[in-house]
Amino acid sequence: MQGLIKSKTQTNYFTMLENDNNMPPTLDDSLNSPDFRTLGEVTVPRPIMKTKNVNVFYGEKQAIYNASLDIGKNEVLAMIGPSGCGKSTFLRCLNRMNDTIDICRIEGEITLEGEDIYGRNMDVVLLRARVGMVFQKPNPFPKSIYDNVAYGINLHGLTNSKSETDDVVEDALKRAGLWAEVSDRLNQPGTGLSGGQQQRLCIARAIAISPEVILMDEPCSALDPIATAKIEELIDELSQMYSICIVTHSMQQAARVSQRTAYFHLGKLIEVGSTDLIFTNPGHRLTEGYITGRFG
Amino acid sequence: MSQVEIIQRGIRRRYVVEGMFRACGLSALICGVVFLAFLLITTFVKGYTALQQTYIGLDITPMEEDFDGAVTEETLRRADYGALIKRSLREAFPDVTRRKEKKTLYRLVSSGAQHELRQKLVQNPGLVGQTTTFWVLADDEVDMYMKGNVNVSIPEKKRRFKDHAIELTKRLVQQDRIQLRFNTPFFSRGDSREPEQAGIKGAAMGSLFAILVTMLLSFPVGIAAAIYLQEFAKTNRFTDFIEVNINNLAAVPSIIFGLLGLAIFINLFGLPRSIPLVGGMVLALMTLPTIIISSRAALAAVPPSIREAALGIGASPVQTVLHHVLPLAMPGMMTGAIIGLAQAMGETAPLLMIGMVAFIVDIPGSPLDPGTALPVQIYLWADSPERAFVERTSAAIIILLLFLSLVNGLIVVLRKKFEKRW
């Protein structure tokens, strides 16, 4: 679900919502009842981000209904669901990427370490430095590998000298597992790397400014299985330092990398729970239908 | 009939249609190339002779009497050089005695010759008292005759260059007193009523100043407007209205912009007529829509993923545009600028309205001096009856084309440079 930047692309998004071929055979009426509640435990003991009763509208169309969900410190939270279920929209609310869309309206409360991110005191630049993002399609800047990683550091003035920047760049590339492959060609364009390398470069770019949370929007959907495996391994390692929120289409991936899983359906957060539980003993009929492959 | 046969029958027809389509395209292309070649070749053939100019060598002996007895700066300036030239011509042709014939003889030399002679003597007063061969400009009729542009088979009555003049010219040739030399005045002078004295420099400088003003105004304004509309402005009725109007402005006839310039810059702001500054401002208004539209297209072509990447890492919208979107869109914007400038450079109509069509002899030294522009000069010369202006018109067209290629080449180089950064 990329390309939500300009209004022209929004029509596509809407048609996607409406012509969803992956609709379940029957809709649970309880979804539309006013006292619909998300199944499972939405709060965690040590949250870094909390969302409460979030509603998102694109113009008249509502994309998210009353979603409340916590992201715990150092946990990997996976968000799954059929196309157009609102999981990407929800993710993009977490670092206010939806601000760029004129007709997008967000209600509810989203906090980062207790601060309201839509509050008056929250600067969006600072927020995005604290909540980094990795996109579906690898999108390195058309600059050198070094400049790609150093851009955020220089943008925020995080280092005082060139050598310090070099160290941070090297560290970020090492943590992204890319250093061994690119250390001898840092001045070559980042766009010349392979798809998987590009995505790891984007992860390096995101972690170079040491965010607290990393949002990943289907980071592996454009990659082959080997590159995917590398990224998944990387996510595992990164979760020791960062909190990660990942949107994925692959249930296996969610099962492999995450500790908690949230299932979205038609803009509603149906069920949240520990990954083990969701995949072995889903509580909701729709969740079960999705993970057993009846639709989705 | 089997299915294969049906398809085979269709295939032949498809090939015929395809062949016809290709032939149409190719013939259109050939047609275009032929017309272009014809245009360029005729212009060049007519124009290249203007690179040379006929000069007449005269033995002139300025005497002290010609300067009221004393050679001072004052008398050097005041002296009657026309008389000196006439005397020299009489000496060269002692047999020409009749009044009418003498008149023909004097007319062989350009009326500008005396000014040249004055200049030379003021610079070098030591020439007084001795005989020197001065090469002075020949009249445009002599020039045309020497270049073979006078049809002698036409009866004398219908000709401007009479038999006697031809005879005198032939005698000058025999005496080795006629030479075709490189036409420096054409490149160093302003306009003139006399073709042999008319030069392109005034118009070229006028065009240069006007284009500079156009560039300085329309680039920043156009690009800023495009960035604002494309990247920052919210989509609402007001911006829609502006967008529609910009698109409409691109289609407005250029003379309307001339009227606008006349009404606003000259009548309202009180700027002088005929100056390249006003011309440049009017041309800037005219090119703005082109630049805005193409710049917006270039910005829209930058993939949204780049914007997301920059925003996602914490760049502000302005930083996103300046660091990432603008450099990527720059080559496309440059293309729009090339189109806009080329359009502006060949534009005549709006300049007519603001008085840049006036007959101006002086070469403008700044955008505030009255001047004209190359296309207007071409229009003026094409309108003149003298045969000698034909070659000058063609030469001016060649120079305008060279000027255009030069500016376009410059922008292409700039564009390449911007592209290299990525």
* First-last Cα distance of chain B: 60 Å
Can you tell me the overall shape of chain B? Answer: elongated
Biggest sheet overview of chain B = 3 strands, antiparallel
Helical content class of chain A: 25-40%
Can you give the helix content of chain B as a percent range? 55-70%
What is the CATH C level class of chain A, in words?
Alpha Beta
Largest sheet: spatial strand order of chain A: 6-7-8-3-9-10
Name given to the CATH homologous superfamily of the largest domain in chain B = MetI-like
| Category by helix and strand content of chain A | alpha/beta
Question: Roughly how many Å is the radius of gyration of chain B?
Answer: 30 Å
Gyration radius of chain A, rounded: 19 Å
Structural key phrases:
heterodimer, A: 296 residues, alpha/beta, Rossmann fold, six-stranded mixed sheet, four-stranded antiparallel sheet, 10 strands, 35% helix, 23% strand, disordered N terminus, B: 422 residues, mainly alpha, MetI-like fold, 3 domains, three-stranded antiparallel sheet, 3 strands
Describe the 3D structure.
The complex is a heterodimer of chains A (296) and B (422). By secondary structure, chain A is an alpha/beta fold. Helices cover 35% and strands 23% of the residues of chain A. Chain A has 11 helices and 10 strands. In chain A, strand 7, helix 8 and strand 8 form a beta-alpha-beta unit. In chain A, helix 5 packs across helix 7. The radius of gyration of chain A is 19 Å and the shape is globular. In chain A, 44% of the residues are buried. The N terminus of chain A is likely disordered. Chain B has 422 residues and is mainly alpha-helical. Chain B folds into 3 domains: 46 residues; 139 residues, no CATH class; 220 residues, Orthogonal Bundle (MetI-like fold). The radius of gyration of chain B is 30 Å and the shape is elongated. In chain B, helix 12 crosses helix 14. Chains A and B meet through helix 3, helix 4 and helix 7 of A and helix 13 and helix 14 of B.
